[in-house]
Design goal:
The complex is a heterodimer. Chain A is mostly helical. Chain A is built from seven helices and five strands. In chain A, helix 1 runs parallel beside helix 3, helix 2 runs antiparallel to helix 3 and helix 3 crosses helix 6. Chain B is mostly helical. The chains are: A mainly alpha, B mainly alpha. Chains A and B meet through helix 3 and helix 6 of A and helix 7, helix 8 and helix 10 of B. Chain A: One of its GO terms (biological process) is DNA-templated DNA replication. Chain A: It holds the Pfam family Sld5. Chain A: The GINS complex plays an essential role in the initiation of DNA replication.
Amino acid sequence: MSSWEDEDSAAASAAATTDVELLKRAWRNEKAAPEILHFDSALVSRAREQIQLLEETLDDFTDNGVDDLVVSLYQMDLDRTLFLLRSYLRLRLQKIEKYMAHIANSDDLLSRLSQQEQRFAKSCKEIMEKHLEQSVLSKLPYGYDSVTRQSLSSTEDDMVPEPQLDTFVFCKTKSDVGAFQLDDIGEEVVDLVADDLYVLRYKSIKGLVEAGRIDLI
Amino acid sequence: MRNVTPLPVVAPQTKHAPMILTLLCSPAYQSESTKFFPRDDTKFPFPPPPAPLVRPIPLDKRPPRAICRPCRSQAPSSDRSGPVLERRSVEQVARGGGRAGGRGSRMYARRASQLLKELDACEPGQLVVFNSDVFDQVIRECGEHNAQFQALIRKMVEQNLDIETTRNEDHYGAAIHHLSLLRNKRCLMAYMYNRAETIRSFRWKIGPVLPHEIQEKLNFSEKEYFRSHSTAIKSYISEMDIDLTVDMVPPKDPYIQVRVLEDIGEVSLGDHSVSLTKNSLHFLRRTDAEQFISQGLMEEFLE
């Protein structure tokens, strides 16, 4: 009986470590990146499954009268994972809130969001536009009443807040990347060694972040 | 009126020239508007060259595009008094046409920048009362700028001048009105937008119902915005089936000690019920206590 339980929980915890680790990485990257990153729906659904599993295990524990200390340790583990997941989703929502118009205009950025986030971004933008429309734009003269453009003479959207992609980020390499070109002309080349810390412009290492070769911290 | 060849601007000599430069070159123009609405400054100060009009627009509604091509080395000829001088600034008109003394009092769109200064002076994450007085004044200013702008364009059309190419005093006068209007618009938008950002943050920090003190700082549209935005967040949360409004800080311990600030009464938490009377201390599950803490009914008790 006890060996059964041990095996079960060992398997569960082994799986949880990796996924929690992955979630932690996704969360950290999301937190440090100026723009919104790809939504890892598979990871999130796996994490949610495991959270549910852990909740059920905990209920079993309380029913079977397992030692309180063990229960509270499990509870703590659960709480932390839940926080991670919530914080991850929250961070993304707040980024969407901040750059709603910019995200809604670009198909590339929209494709990074989950279905639910896309719906949220859309309604977010509509609500904001309605608010600006009724408080400011409807009172301005003809030609100056666009949300995204300053006036009719603007040929492109020039009033959409965008994330600053050339800000600096702290990052840690996971493996040797080798000589890496930071700018387009090849004047700045950095040798990225495994497990080393760097402060670089986000724009230049964007590709590495997306490919998962470098972690933001 | 003669069509005068514009002189290159080296040292502006007329009294109003500094005003133009003040407006266009004022660091406030650039810093404030870029701060709240980042923009590409290469296009500054004028919008890009005109593109052919797609559809004809009635003359009195003619967009400003036509009169605003880039003219880096050109400015109003400085040896005669142009209409910019005669046409007193909106500020002056509003004040009864008195002679403006300092450069500040001559600057268009100064009121709008006051709104942003107010915003900036506020602690981050806090709000002051919506300044509807100044806000409405700026909206009125916008209307006046537009009227002046249209009048100048009409005048040029009546003189049979080509408004796309003519560079006379009316052109520059109109350009100033156009730019002032743009600046006013950017300031108003930035004001509303940044306030809206703070209002959104209340949803995360305080919850779906705002206390009275905050409610009275919002204007009607902002209240509505908060409500609709809360609904959007709520529908996301129910779609995802996970409550995102709890767990705002990383958990350290599953249980915390709390002090009850207001009588809450009998509450059932999990498998047992607790009577939460004012000033009593309890040892509760953090997840249970959090909802009361965010409503301000409890506080974490730290020894």
